[in-house]
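Supplementary Note 3. Input sequence used for the single-chain structure prediction.
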Amino acid sequence: MPRRAAVLLAVAAAVGAVGGCGAKDAPPVDDACRSSPGAIERALARAPAPVTLPSGTKLSECVSGARTDADLQNTGLVLTRTADDLAGRAQQGDPHAAVALGYLVGAARRGAARTNGIHAELARRVESAARVLASDAGGDDGGDGGDGAPGLAGALERGLRAGEATG
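The predicted structure, written as discrete structure tokens, is reproduced below.
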């Protein structure tokens, strides 16, 4: 019997070791992803150039790396507040806010696309802030591409493309 018990213990240890090799815990979400909208906005100042947080984390990694309910909630809260603030500034005529908002939306889409689908709601909420700006573009009379809504819609689109590509 002692030999059988030793064999069973050895098999259990081997199974545990093999199971542990591929089942490493995902790295925690970068604190900057959950800290404040201001931290995200400071990083977005570089948009449409590639945007990373001070640690080197991409915004898409903030989305895809949120594994727990708490991470999803906290990251989502910071990103949606950032998107709402940028949308408000863009609606007031700030083209850089429109670029930054587009970049954030693109990065959120990129991050959600690398998950099994549970992050799509977070991306959708970030994206909803940009819909107001995009819908304002259709109601402008001039279409001159200056400081009016069409220019802001173009800025939003530039940021969106950049965020999807490098976010």
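The chain has a mean pLDDT of 80. Residues 29-166 form one domain.
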